[in-house]
Amino acid sequence: MNSLVRIAAAAAICASSGAAWPALTPAGMWSGNVGLSVDGIGSNLSPVGSVQAEIPVTATILQAYLYSAGTPFPFYPDSPHTLADYNGAGITLAGSPITNFSALVGATSTRVDIGGWGTGRADVTSLVQSLRAAAPGVSSFSWLVSEGNLNNRIDGEVLAIVYSDASRPLGSVALLNGGQNTGGETSFVNLGTPLTDPSAPGFAAELGLGISFSISGQSSTVKVNGATAASNAGNNDDGLQASDGSLITVGGLGDPASNNGSYADDHELYNLAPFLATGNTSFSIFTQNPTNDDNIFFASLYLTGDITSVTPSIPEPESYALLLAGLGVVAVVARRRRVR
After folding, report:
1. How many CB atoms lie within 10 A of CB 278?
2. Quick check: 246 and 43 in contact, CB under 8 A?
């Protein structure tokens, strides 16, 4: 595929999905006695492996999403980049076919040869509720994942579950879709009431990221309110192999919430309390991938506070430049075809 076609294809993805300018945008937000279970798995094995879940016995499941993170297109021309690709792939969770992918999310690279990632998202709430109901009294689950005929072109899956349980403190959970530009974008988390003292016992604020197509030192920077929370976000911590089709990591179950760790020690789960202040009514999250080849496709937020909305900033200049350049190529190609 020549460079002009790659640019045109990348622009078409941007134009059709909006992936060039949304940063982290809500898939849903919940408040009350809420909790969160997030885990990921990736491999080129069949089945891929098992994704874990932790759900209190007394909890009510409010929402569950399965994210399936394909490799970039047009970098790999046979990578999934449409809903039809995902729905027809033969992806399963606990043996049940997942054919209701209804949203495409994922990053857009400033590198035209990379293009972007058409990561699929499916609502699996009813499936997870039924799997949980079939095992009364159980709080820890392990469900097999398979990727059908796209096994080597999907880096892995993330299962995110939101639940409510009376034993939990009052707080908020937000699940966020990616769609960021690797050149850097900012999202703002807006609060309904000012924050209490972040240093007080019981205060909690955690950010988890889902990242694919990352390994061998490729990393992203994460800043909260302008301060660096991580400069080594990435790697294939939840992938079983060090190869394309298995490059996935997500902050969640079993991961320590830490900041500014080394590449090996960073597991994409961050404690935001050091970057917040009493009385804050909003805070910013900035992500950037200097190598322009990692896919931040998902984020989760847990806060003992009142999250009311998450809004993107104005698009980064390079997002517009890439889109306009690509659309210009598409227009030129179209004109040439008409003349011929």
Report:
1. 12
2. yes
State pTM to two decimals.
0.87
Gap between the Cα atoms of 50 and 43, Å rounded? 10
DSSP 108: B
What pLDDT does residue 179 have? 85
Does pLDDT of 135 surpass 80? yes
Written as one letter, the residue type at 168 is R
- The kind and range of the H/E element at 339 are helix 317-339
Q: Which two tokens stand for residue 224?
A: 């909260």
The pLDDT mean for the chain works out to: 89
Phi and psi (nearest 5°) for 49? 150, -170
Give all strands of the β-sheet with 282-288 in edge-to-edge order: 227-233, 220-224, 282-288, 185-191, 307-312
**Phi, psi (deg, nearest 5) at residue 273:** -55, -40
Single-letter code of the amino acid located at 132: R
For helices 3-17 and 317-339, angle between their N-to-C axes, nearest 10 degrees: 110
Residue 200's SS3 state is coil
Single-letter amino acid code for the residue at 65: Y
